[in-house]
Specification:
single chain; mainly alpha; five-stranded parallel sheet; two-stranded antiparallel sheet; 45 helices; 7 strands
């Protein structure tokens, strides 16, 4: 029976009832040690729903996927039913297959699909205790799956310590457990067997803070020094001392077995007993601890009364005894699949530099890195460096740790590791033939194997790259840019291809600084000696053209040439999409980004999807397909949020604000714009700030609030926004607002920039926008000539706005019939684009001509669907099965079925067979 947890139990009951009805949910229970998290998990598991369990184990926190394997082991016979990519990813994570390392989030998708398969016959409960001790790879996979639960009938419950940094779980419901109410605390205390005086009872109720474990355990030790009222220790430490006091009364052999079990951490008793036998203890010696209620065992596994008891045993033992326990465990772990755990026990037993142990631990780090267990790899490389006897080997291992930390997104730790390596490298002598040698098939960020150079200069270059990425992530693009340029210049003579890869990163940092930095990148790019069949050559040439403003090749040709040369597609081609938008090749960007998105889905490279979906969304929007654009953007946002890509969260929120402004949805526009510049993303300096200003400006312009539009557009005239994609795309808006406010000088300046961009990019649609700008600044027949030229080559929204402005000009010129023609065409285009404020503006102009416009046309079959329903319906109409759709969209097949079931009545169909007959185009 649980005391005082009615509210918490009701929340759990609601989740379980939802699972019985086919709905999914996830919740994090957060609270201090002993507050009752595990008791609530046990309550949930006792409610009659099939349950799978796992728990974080402190000693395995650096072993990738250790806790995940425990959770999914009951359903491993279903792994064969997973889509091939997901099956291979999960098998590779567990070391069961020969496949290449998979994107970490693909493993999370495999977990989601596997849980959905397990729940096919009924609801499923997943219980994860001590989540703060989960290895990072497991935590990332489980959180990815938890955020994407929808209609599988799966509930995931996590229990973790109080601090949000112990187990960050953004996007999941959290239940923070406080101490029991006074009446519930009293009832729990009185239910115990220890007789307490009124004074002691009052004291325990007061000092326990309602902590259930304290109420259960402290009465047995009242009167001992552990409850000294003069200067009481924090509650957790007092509980540990109380537990330790009980341990010290056990026989010596029992304490030995307990210490080894505490050092082992895992529940498997076999290696514990093998290790204990070398120290003179055995299984029967556990009996006194069982009799005291400290542990429970069936001879195969061992469980602790509470994690604090395990900590009390370990921390309360002498250092020499702890070292002996780790050595004994290392000797007992003889199986190949225990090699990584053995390495860590050897490291824990080391009292000084030990090259053999360092080498063993480095191999563990290599294996973790290959399996994308980056956090564990960082810890292993770092510890191996500390154990190194050779200074060169120590530097090399620190460099590997820093690079791996960068891959894991641990930028602060990466920078600290890089600083240590840099400091040490000044004193180290490098011997590439000795213990400092690198002979693994790994690559550094320049694209070369570390074996290609392990001297001080090579390490310096690699450290510059690490620190550049740390600087950029820390909001210091200027410092990052200088480091990248320094590294590129250092590498261009001996390794031009590596230098090219560095400079593609420098294009990105320069983009946030200004034209001078872009020119600097272009100048160095132009000096590289690249061979024609090198895949970097067409990429570098395209980037050079885009950043210098010179005309460039067709984007599709550059991508095709890079692929022929052996480029890593999609990874090497992502930057081309962003540069393509700079030179106005929007159609090509949309097509290439679409291809690369498909490749990402096929290869399971989830980490590249957010930027590619953003680029595709831009291309779709500019091409007059706003609904498809929104679908792509919202998927990109979900993925960016799931995997913590804050840069793209900000950017895509801002772009969604722009799409909302196009539709005149002021609430959504402002919500997305505010989110894009939230403090966690950098506030006014956030990556999405420029798009956010452009969105609010477009909303204001559409609603006729010209002064606000002018204020927002002023941000587009200041570097670095001035040269960004959106800085260029808002030039027509700047011209229109300035003309309507009578600011001819500002309009002329914006037109000059727009004309220069049109000449530079060689795109007819940009030339058409420049012609529209000239029309707004001209008079009489000159204006009409420019309006006609502006309609010669344009995209839907731009064309509609040109016709609106032309119609307004014709109405003012008293040419009512011609004006009506242009305004009606504009209104029809705006209606088709769901551009409500612009459509209303055209209707208002037609009303001024005395023309009735009737009601607005409906938006077609897809207009009633949510973006995700639209995406699923389109794929189902193409003949894809639910499982194929699920694999493509990173959902479970049951969620796909759920969304189709909701979409059918909205579309007026009864089955997927009828979808192919619908017109699903925009």
């Amino acid at each position: 029976m649980l005391h005082g947890r009615d509210t918490e139990q009701a929340m759990i009951d609601d989740l379980l009832d939802g699972a019985r009805a086919g709905r999914s949910g996830a919740m994090v229970l957060r609270g201090e040690a002993g507050i009752g998290k595990t008791a609530l998990l046990d309550y949930a598991a006792a409610q009659g729903i099939p349950t799978v369990r796992s728990a974080g184990i402190e000693s395995e926190a650096e072993l990738p996927f250790a806790a995940l394997h425990l959770l999914v082991r009951p359903g491993m016979e279903l792994v064969g039913q997973l889509p091939p990519r997901q099956r291979e990813a999960l098998e590779a994570a567990f070391g069961l297959g020969e496949g290449a390392p998979a994107d970490r989030m693909l493993i999370g998708l495999a977990v989601l699909t596997l849980l959905a398969e397990e729940a096919a016959q009924g609801p499923l409960l997943c219980v994860i205790d001590d989540a703060h001790w989960l290895d990072r790879a497991t935590a990332e996979a489980l959180l990815f799956a938890a955020r994407r639960l929808d209609a599988e009938g799966v509930v995931m419950l996590f229990a973790t310590r109080s601090g949000p940094q112990d187990f960050p779980a953004p996007g999941l419901t959290e239940l923070v457990l406080a101490g029991l109410r006074p009446d519930a605390a009293a009832a729990l205390l009185d239910a115990g067997t220890t007789a307490l005086s009124p004074a002691m009872r009052y004291r325990l109720l007061t000092e326990s803070g309602g902590n259930p474990l304290a109420l259960l355990e402290l009465p047995a030790v009242v009167g001992e020094t552990t409850v000294d009222e003069g200067n009481p220790l924090p509650l957790t430490q007092r509980l540990q001392l109380a537990f330790h006091g009980r341990v010290t009364r056990l026989p010596a052999a029992t304490r030995t077995v307990l210490l080894i079990a505490a050092a082992a951490g895992a529940a498997d008793l076999a290696p514990v007993l093998r290790a204990a036998s070398t120290l003179g203890a055995s299984l029967p010696d556990l009996q006194p601890a069982q009799d005291a209620g400290m542990v429970a065992t069936d001879g195969r596994v061992l469980s602790w009364r509470h994690p604090l008891l395990r900590s009390a045993v370990y921390q309360g033992s002498a250092l020499t005894d702890r070292l002996a326990a780790h050595r004994a465990l290392a000797d007992a772990l003889v199986d190949d699949d225990a090699a990584d755990l053995r390495a860590w026990h050897l490291a824990c037993a080391a009292t000084g530099p030990d090259e053999n142990t360092a080498t063993t631990l480095e191999r563990t780090a290599d294996r973790a890195r290959r399996r994308h267990g980056f956090h564990g790899a960082v810890a292993a490389y770092d510890r191996a460096a500390a154990l190194s006897t050779d200074a060169g080997a120590r530097v090399r291992r620190l460099v590997l740790a820093a690079e791996t930390a960068t891959e894991a997104g641990l930028t602060d730790r990466a920078e600290r590791l890089a600083e240590r390596a840099e400091s040490l490298s000044h004193r180290a002598e490098f011997d590439t033939g000795g213990v400092g040698r690198v002979d693994r098939a790994e690559t550094d960020p320049t694209g070369r194997s570390p074996a290609a150079g392990s001297d001080a200069s090579t390490f310096a270059l690699r450290l510059d790259l690490v620190r550049a990425q740390a600087d950029f992530a820390g909001g210091k693009p200027g410092s990052a840019h200088r480091r990248l340029m320094s590294a590129a210049v250092a590498a261009r003579e001996t390794d031009p291809r590596g230098a090219a890869r560095i400079l593609t990163k420098a294009v990105h940092t320069a983009w946030y600084l200004g034209p001078d930095e872009l020119d600097e990148v272009a100048a160095v790019l132009a000096t590289l000696r690249l061979v024609e069949d090198d895949p970097a050559t067409p990429i570098v040439r395209y980037l050079t053209g885009s950043v210098t403003g010179h005309r460039v090749a067709d984007l599709r040709d550059a991508a095709a040439a890079a692929r022929v040369g052996g480029a890593d597609s999609p990874a090497d081609l992502v930057q081309l999409c962003g540069s393509g938008l700079v030179v106005g090749q929007d159609t090509q960007v949309e097509e290439l980004a679409g291809e690369l998105v498909r490749e990402c889905r096929e290869q399971g490279r989830i980490g590249l999807l957010a930027p590619l979906l953003f680029f595709r969304s831009e291309g779709l929007s500019f091409g007059g397909r706003p609904r498809e654009s929104r679908i792509a953007a919202e998927e990109g946002l979900r993925i960016a949020q799931d995997i913590g890509q804050t840069q793209w969260v900000s950017q895509i929120h801002a772009f969604l604000a722009y799409l909302a402004a196009l539709q005149g949805d002021s609430t959504a526009c402002r919500d997305h714009a505010d989110r894009a510049v939230a403090e966690e993303f950098g506030g006014a300096s956030a990556v999405g700030a420029s798009w956010a200003h452009a969105a609010v400006a477009l909303l204001a312009l559409g609603e006729g609030r010209l002064e606000q539009a002018r204020t927002e557009l002023a941000h587009m005239t200041i570097e670095p926004a001035r040269h960004h994609v959106i800085g260029l795309r808002t030039l027509p808006d700047q011209i229109e607002v300035a003309v309507r406010l009578g600011a001819t000088d500002r309009a002329t300046e914006a037109l000059d920039r727009l004309t220069h961009w049109a000449q530079r990019a060689g795109q007819a649609w940009i030339a058409a926008l420049a012609a529209r700008g000239r029309a707004l600044l001209a008079d009489g027949s000159d204006a009409e000539q420019h309006f006609v030229a502006a309609l010669a080559a344009n995209r839907p929204f731009d064309e509609a706005r040109t016709r609106l402005l032309y119609g307004e000009w014709l109405r003012r010129d008293k040419r009512k019939v011609d004006a009506r023609t242009q305004l009606e065409l504009a209104m029809d285009l705006f209606d088709r684009l769901d551009a409500t404020p612009w459509s209303e503006r055209a209707r208002t102009e037609l009303g001024a001509l005395g023309v009735g416009t009737g009601t607005r046309a409906s938006g077609g079959p897809l207009s009633s669907l949510t973006p995700q329903e639209s995406q699923i319906v389109r794929l189902a109409a193409q003949g894809l099965s639910n499982r194929e759709i699920a694999a493509r969209l990173f959902l479970s097949h049951r969620t796909v079925g759920h969304h189709l079931y909701k979409a059918y009545p909205k579309l007026g169909v009864l089955s997927r067979g009828e979808l192919s007959a619908l017109d699903l185009t925009e």
